[in-house]
UniProtKB/TrEMBL annotation:
Residues 3-444 form the Aldehyde dehydrogenase domain. One of its GO terms (molecular function) is succinate-semialdehyde dehydrogenase (NAD+) activity. One of its GO terms (biological process) is gamma-aminobutyric acid catabolic process. InterPro entries: Ald_DH/histidinol_DH, Ald_DH_C, Ald_DH_CS_CYS, Ald_DH_N, Aldehyde_DH_dom, Aldehyde_DH_Superfamily. It holds the Pfam family Aldedh. The lineage of its organism: Bacteria, Bacillati, Actinomycetota, Actinomycetes, Micromonosporales. PROSITE patterns: ALDEHYDE_DEHYDR_CYS (PS00070). This is Aldehyde dehydrogenase. Keywords: Oxidoreductase. It comes from Verrucosispora sp. MS100047.
Length: 450
């Protein structure tokens, strides 16, 4: 059994029965057996089911957002917004899948007629992260089902309710038995799932260290992987940045879900001419904790995450960093940690090299754009980045940043229409857009004389 906790209090609010490694072969076999029937269903019918699932999520049970918030530590408003994004993702996938599965004809002029078909890749293992379980599930499950794959979802043990609820809604939408299976398991069971040859594609969102283990486990049966891993996103503010726009955008992006996002800004590189003003504005705008008057930021997801965030702050301070706000572990129940702004952070501080995955904002200064680009790219991660400044200058600088997505004068999250992929230790393969759908298909060429 595995306990489920309320991050606001630390109290146990539920228990899960975990799948053991002995039960893995049956799960994998059921996914394999269900594949021929599901892949034979017309893509239009599959997409009709996805549209209905999107509708059911949009018209979800009234208490789902509250239950989701209870397990994740999000505010109810954040939980509801994520569920709306999940519904939007399923709906977009249903509209785009017909194009992704259409194939094409090649006219080579050599007397042969060639037709390119798109087949499903096969059974899929989808490993979902705990920080945005509804959206991460939608970005994996929607494309896989639309392309005709069966799916086993290894759901996060700490936030089980929302994944189970969406699976139940999928069944109500008409999804056949065993096309989707949801399991919870420990690291041993996870490794056993990854090693099963039935799974022809493994899609994983999580830390780069676990992603490396997933990739290594898939090698034995040459399963392909889509890995959306950690990030260490720089936010660069040029000397002509509009702070009235930049500060609220970056505060919202950084501290939503208490900073537990791989795509959130985690290093703030600010031109020396506006450094002091940015620090003043930014530190004044950070959210308070939601158990305090006027506060809107919830706790960290686990006690271990809270302790690691505090360790990163202490390491930076021990090396000479200055705490502008936050930096103290609160007394009382729950796994709260305040929004923390650091300046004078030395280059050796761990927080500049390790993904903080929490509400820490180290603010560095730079004097010229080449220095900013060099600092931004001085990391093995390459998922996201942000640039604020005059449009032409900011765009030119953004093109020099080594990241899968660079936001210019904005800080919005991933959308269903656009592909997202990391570089370096941030992973490989695409989620989102037509490219994300294509990851779950395989091409077959039929050729015959004209």
């Amino acid at each position: 059994m595995s306990a489920v906790h309320d991050p606001r209090t630390g109290d146990v609010v539920g228990h899960l029965t975990l799948l053991t490694s002995d039960g893995v072969p049956e799960i994998a076999n059921r996914a394999s057996v269900a594949l021929p029937g599901w892949s034979a269903v017309a893509v239009t019918t599959r997409c009709t089911i996805l549209r209905e699932l999107a509708r059911l999520i949009a018209q979800r049970p009234a208490d789902l957002g509250a239950r989701f918030a209870l397990e994740t530590g999000k505010t109810v408003a954040q939980a509801e917004a994520e569920l709306d994004r999940a519904a939007e993702t399923f709906a977009w996938t249903a509209e785009a899948a017909v194009r992704a599965t259409a194939g094409r004809t090649i006219a080579a002029g050599d007397g042969l007629h060639r037709q390119v078909l798109v087949d499903p890749v096969g059974p899929v293992l989808a490993i979902v992260a705990s920080n945005f379980p509804a959206v991460v599930l939608a970005r994996k499950l929607g494309p896989a089902l639309a392309m005709g794959c069966t799916v086993v979802v290894k759901a996060p043990e700490t936030t089980p309710s929302v994944v189970r609820e969406i699976a139940d809604l999928a069944a109500k939408a008409g999804l056949p038995t065993d096309v989707l299976q949801v399991v919870h398991t420990d690291p041993v069971g996870s490794a056993a799932l990854v090693a099963r040859a039935e799974f022809r594609l493994i899609t994983f969102t999580g830390s780069h260290r676990t992603g490396q283990l997933v990739a290594a486990g898939a090698v034995g049966h040459l399963a392909e992987c889509v890995l959306e891993l950690g990030g260490h996103a720089p936010a660069i503010l040029l000397d002509d940045a509009d702070l009235a726009t930049a500060v609220p955008a970056l505060v919202a992006s950084k501290f939503s879900s208490a900073g537990q996002s791989c795509a959130a800004p985690s290093r703030f590189l600010v031109h020396e001419r506006i450094h002091a003003e940015f620090v003043d504005r930014f530190s004044a705008a950070v959210p308070g904790l939601d158990h305090e008057p006027g506060g809107t930021m919830g706790p960290l997801h686990t006690e271990a995450r809270r302790d690691e965030v505090h360790a990163l702050v202490l390491d930076a301070v021990d090396r000479g960093a200055t705490v502008i706000t936050g930096g103290r572990r609160p007394c009382g129940p729950g796994w709260y940690y305040p929004a923390t702004v650091l300046t004078d952070v030395p280059a050796q501080a761990r927080v500049l090299h390790e993904e903080p995955f929490g509400p820490i904002a180290p603010v560095l200064r730079f004097t010229d754009e080449d220095q900013a680009v060099a600092t931004a790219n001085a990391t093995p991660f390459g998922l996201g980045a942000f640039v604020f400044g005059g449009q032409a200058r900011a765009t030119a600088l953004a093109e020099r940043i080594n990241a899968g997505r660079v936001s210019i004068n904005c800080a919005t999250g991933a959308d269903p229409m656009s592909p997202l992929s990391g570089r370096g230790l941030s992973g490989y393969g695409y989620e989102g857009g037509l490219e994300g759908l294509a990851a779950f298909g395989r091409l077959k060429v039929l050729q015959r004389p004209v």
